[in-house]
Amino acid sequence: MRKLVSALAIAAVLALLATPVHAQPYPPTSGGLTVSESTVSPGGTIVVSGEGAEPGATVTITLSRSSSSLGTGNPVVAAGPALARLVAATHPLAQGGVTLGRTTAAADGSFRTTVTIPLSTEPGIYTLTASSGGEVLSVVTLRVVAASTGGLPFTGADVGPGLVVGAALIVVGGLLLVAVRRRRRSTA
User: Fold this and answer.
1) Pure H helices in 18-96
2) pLDDT tens digits, residue range 113-153?
3) 149: in domain
4) What residues does 115 pair with on adjacent strands?
5) Which residues constitute the domain of residue 7?
6) Cys-Cys with 141: which of 36, 45, 67, 75 at CB 3.0–4.6 Å?
7) Dihedral sign computed on CA atoms, order 78, 79, 81, 82
8) Are 146 and 41 contacting, i.e. CB atoms less than 8 angstroms apart?
9) How many Cα atoms within 13 Å fall on the side-chain side of residue 158?
């Protein structure tokens, strides 16, 4: 009897713990470029910061539609200046786009600015590029979503089905336990 109850308790715990965990680093980064939010609505603002520019150089932040949103491959994400230049050369969409802002690099080559996503931006996957003097410093992927109609955004996973399955297993186990007890009493 104790073994059955223990087995049911272990099964219930395993059913409730079987949900995978999906964690992402915050703030999102790619190479030397960091954005305060990786998902933003048109009209929203994000803080863009990075490094790798020449001291005192002008850094331009550009937003362009990612080639993946046009059905031609994976999102453009590049880590580091060399890979960012390669991506910009092989994906011309990463070079064009809308200039969101400009800032001046500090003495150590770092930069930081706040940019606003234009209200006319359609939802989809975009590439945010930091460049200076015609050289791409770094690229990061940004998701633009439709403007919210109010309320809080849904975050996390839907745990309802997992809870229903776990509760059903516990109920079935309890019913089996009662049936076994009755059968033992009737045979004794």
Assistant:
1) 81-90
2) 999 999 888 888 898 888 888 888 888 888 888 876 666 66
3) no
4) 46
5) 2-19+159-187
6) 75
7) negative
8) yes
9) 3
Buried b / exposed e over 142-155, threshold 16 CB at 10 Å, is: bbbeeeeeeeeeee
Tokens 């993946």, residue?
68
* Per-residue pLDDT tens over the stretch 16-62: 776 665 555 554 544 578 888 888 988 889 999 988 888 999 999 99
Give CA–CA dist 43/67, Å, rounded: 22
For 68-93, how does the pLDDT look when each residue is reduced to its tens digit (9 = 90+)?
A: 544 444 444 545 555 555 555 554 44
Rounded to whole angstroms, the Cα distance separating 116 from 122 reads 14
Neighbours of 172 (CB within 10 A): 12
Do 46 and 134 share a structural domain?
yes
Token pair 């070079």 is found at: 95
Please state whether 11 falls in left (phi above 0), alpha (psi between -120 and 50) or beta. Answer: alpha
Token digits for 63? Answer: 């937003």
Between CA 42 and CA 118 the distance in angstroms is 6
Look up the CATH number of the domain holding residue 80: 2.60.40.1930
The pTM score is: 0.52
